[in-house]
Amino acid sequence: MMNNDLLQHIQRLQFSDKPQAERLLLDFLRAAFDLSVAGVELRPLAVSLNSFNGFLTLTDGRRLFFKTHVESDTMIDEYYNARQLEDAGYSISQPLYESGEVGKQVLIYAVIDDPSVFDVAWMLERGERHDLAALTAAQNAADDALWGIYQRTLAWQQSADAAKAPIHQLFYHRLTGGRLARFYADDITVDLPDGSTQTMGAIKRVQWVINGREYGASLETTIQNAIRYLDPTLPGASVIGHGDAHNGNLFYRADGLMYFDPAFAGRHSALLDLVKPLFHNVFAMWMYFPNEIREKLAIRLERAGDVWHVEHDYTLHPVRRMFFDSKVERVLKPCIRELKTRGWLHEDWRAIFKLALFCCPFLTMNLADAAKFSPEIRLLGLSMAVEMGVRADDPDSRSLIDTTLDFAP
């Protein structure tokens, strides 16, 4: 088994046969690093959609933390730019050992006992913590610092350099590199909440009305638009960014938030840098906790020919709205204004931003996977992909994303 295939196998196996996954990982780490590894302990987590992490123990008794990101059909030659982020001013945990080679991409850190922001936010949402004000202050401070880094590192990026940015693996290369075909080939069938079974080919062609809002493009059209607008060779405004700064990649420390796992870090589009945190920190709890969300979700599908009417009551918890407002008001809007002032705001910036958002619910996980998602969560995910990627037709009835982007200068 090739290394990249092995890491993906371990990522999947950790949820069903953790001891076997740990045995395979132990052999891998001993071969990949000049370390005397005595044992490993995987931590299967909801946030680990395309990654795995845990602890390793050396023969001298030292305990270390490791994390890896696994990505099929990768177009990246080298992962991780932690030093570049630190030099730009990010508060980021530096690895003690690292392997950025494709198929061997692993970072090994000193053990950090602080919780991830992902865990803290989920505990707040479940009523297991009550310090939203403190988390809000930390998030606001982190976003103010992020905007400062954007301002200091903002520069024009030519086409050839833009094409090499690792961040495109999260968007364009997932669309064109094989994942799209594996997840959503036309002949794949899926069950829906109304009791019907539909092919993905048929689902990709329908028009959508979601909570009374009409969306004027099918999934098939949206996919083609995304391939067109998310072209990696597009020159434009760039910053030094983490690229994948969702809450699972941030520690919540007494002195503020600290980044880690910079698998997709580098110089890249300022707007693309904000996509993953804006979607995953705000809208994606159904993706991480599908069973818990299903228990309290009301969703209904009515099909009228090629028009699907979906009604659902999925709403944002205050902690999710806090993440959204902080990132939008403190980073996104100032960034768009600055790009406009410099004459660097792409005429299609809104389409680019929304189509990158579309990739998050549509391509991070396989919505057609019956073992992972119930028909209700599957329909919610498809609906959210439409809402992220397509502009609602009715100017008087707008999604949160569309209303937010209507401010544009």
Please give a handful of descriptors for the protein shown:
globular; single chain; 409 residues; 18 helices; alpha+beta; five-stranded antiparallel sheet; four-stranded mixed sheet
Short account of what is shown:
The chain has 409 residues and is of the alpha+beta class.
Chart the SSEs and their pairings.
Blueprint: H1 3-13, H2 18-32, E1 37-42, E2 51-58, E3 63-69, H3 82-88, E4 97-99, E5 106-110, H4 117-125, H5 132-153, E6 155-157, H6 159-163, H7 172-176, H8 179-184, E7 189-191, E8 197-199, H9 200-203, E9 207-210, E10 213-215, H10 219-229, E11 236-241, E12 250-253, E13 256-259, E14 266-269, H11 270-273, H12 275-280, H13 285-288, H14 290-296, E15 299-304, E16 307-312, H15 318-342, H16 349-363, H17 375-389, H18 400-405
Parallel strand pairs: 9-16
Antiparallel strand pairs: 1-2, 2-3, 3-5, 4-5, 6-11, 7-8, 9-10, 11-14, 12-13, 15-16
The level of helicity is 40-55%
**Could you give the order of strands across the largest sheet?**
1-2-3-5-4
Poorly predicted sequence stretches spanning 5 or more consecutive residues = none
Tell me about the largest β-sheet: 5 strands, antiparallel
Mean pLDDT: 92
Number of helices: 18
